[in-house]
User: Fold this.
Amino acid sequence: MAGTVIRSFDSPTATPFQPVWDGRTLWVIDYPTGTIYQVDPVTGRAIRSISAPSNAIHGLAWDGHYLLAHDGDSQLLYQVDPVTERIIRSLSAGLAADRGLAWDGRHLWMVSEFFATISQIDPETGRTIRSISAPSYAIRGLAWDGRHLWMVTNNSTTISQIDPETGRTIRSFSAPAPGCVGPALDGRSMWVSSYTTGRIYQLSV
Assistant:
């Protein structure tokens, strides 16, 4: 059944936010310290850690080669080499107080909590291509499954699959713990983290 907890483990940080899948491992950010951890999805062990490009990163994604990090205060989007920690480039994405970032292979998707919208963003210019209304309040995270968007909604209590054309909720199920953020998708299952329990959860989809 969708949403069933396959397993869970302690995160390297007590407050893990914005889990991201890079094809082999997970990444989570610790907001209080501005540290991004690479996490072994089998053992839960921290493989390494890097410093976030700013102290207000609210959105994290993987573009196939690099980490993408969005500063919700300055509205800057950073492309970061996770090996060297070098900022490859930055640009203004024009959205304040974002709470989620996803890469669909061509474009970025970003949640604006302030405007209650989900926007498709040109990654070269930062220009908003189009926006749809968010289906709920207090969205915490965003992911792309190849056809649809996924997000944690209703103040971290519900995980929802969304039609990117209309914003319609296709299906939803309860989050496994309070304070959940994410999700990240690995092609077979889903990962969310909880800043309340300090754990990372693998879920069936």
About this structure: The two ends are 7 Å apart (CA to CA).
